Amino acid sequence: MAQRRAPAATNGRFGFLTVGQTARILGVSPSTLRLWENVGLIAPVRSDGRYRLYSPEHLEVLKRIKYLRDVKQLNVPGIRQELGAAAATPGAAEGNGATRDLGTKLRKLRQQAALGVNAAARLAKISPGFLSAIERTRCHASVATLQRLAATYGTTVLELFEEKPRRPTRLVRPNDTRVLETHSGVRMELLARGTTMLQCLRFRVRPGAGSDGAYSHQGEEFIHMLEGTLEVWLDEIDCHLLEAGDSFWFESTLGHRWYNPGGFDAVLIWINTPPTF
């Protein structure tokens, strides 16, 4: 069983961290963080006073960078390749048919919901500055943040897969699979399109990557592990370490967060019913 991770210290009610706090959590020097920023591996948010601030999403990326440097012994080009793109590259990573500009889509959803940045950020439990940075593709949203934003706008993460409504498709070929990939290393492939009672996704979670926070919604969830390991926390009380071949279900109303504590990618089938994720 993987050890529990201590919760990160936070700066203010929206969870931003200063350079000093972030450096202490990671066990690196502030100059190392500035170096990673200068070479394009990370792009912190700037406060009104131009101070560097790191969101929980940034912290997950930084943990991944440190793991690749310390454990995998990779140099900067190698780390950049493993991350899939430079950490400062705008937008979500594009897979086959992926949403090309997630920030623009989230901004349109907010506007359709008749919400200002401050109101939407308050409902989604993030800072207005962070939401603005996501919409301008200067920061990247985690799975938990995407879910909270989708719920705020009266939709689901599922809708972020589609450029426009599509007719139901019983058979989905590999070339037709819709993909959404977070910057921190979570790849979600939509395996069934047009369903009204369930969502079926294939997740690939890189080592150290995860939801980066808890979220909840209506319904029930089923996970079947194909490869690797996944640690799932329910209501911050029950911790379950899932391994290849394991099956697991839980009520979606329980606050749930998850991450890959192993050294290899975790691959799993994740089903939600009804489609409220």
Short description:
The chain is an alpha+beta fold. It is built from 8 helices and 11 strands.
Characteristic terms for this protein:
277 residues; alpha+beta; Multidrug-efflux Transporter Regulator, Chain: A, Domain 2; Jelly Rolls; 6-stranded antiparallel beta sheet; 3-stranded antiparallel beta sheet; 8 helices; 11 strands; 28% helix; globular; disordered N terminus
Q: Fraction of residues in helices?
A: 25-40%
Q: How are the strands ordered across the major sheet? A: 3-4-5-11-6-9
Low-pLDDT stretches are: 1-14, 85-100
Mean pLDDT: 78
Please provide a written account of the structure.
The chain has 277 residues and is an alpha+beta fold. Among the domains are: 19-83, Orthogonal Bundle (Multidrug-efflux Transporter Regulator, Chain: A, Domain 2), CATH 1.10.1660.10; 168-273, Jelly Rolls, CATH 2.60.120. Helices cover 28% and strands 21% of the residues. It contains eight helices and eleven strands. It has helices spanning 19-26, 30-38, 56-70, 76-83, 102-112, 117-124, 128-135, 143-152, and strands at residues 45-46, 52-53, 178-181, 186-190, 199-205, 220-227, 229-234, 238-243, 247-251, 256-259, 266-273. The strands form three sheets. It has a six-stranded antiparallel β-sheet, with no helix packed on it. A hairpin with a 4-residue loop joins strand 3 (178-181) and strand 4. Helix 3 (56-70) packs across helix 4 (76-83). The longest helix has 15 residues, at 56-70. The radius of gyration is 18 Å and the shape is globular.
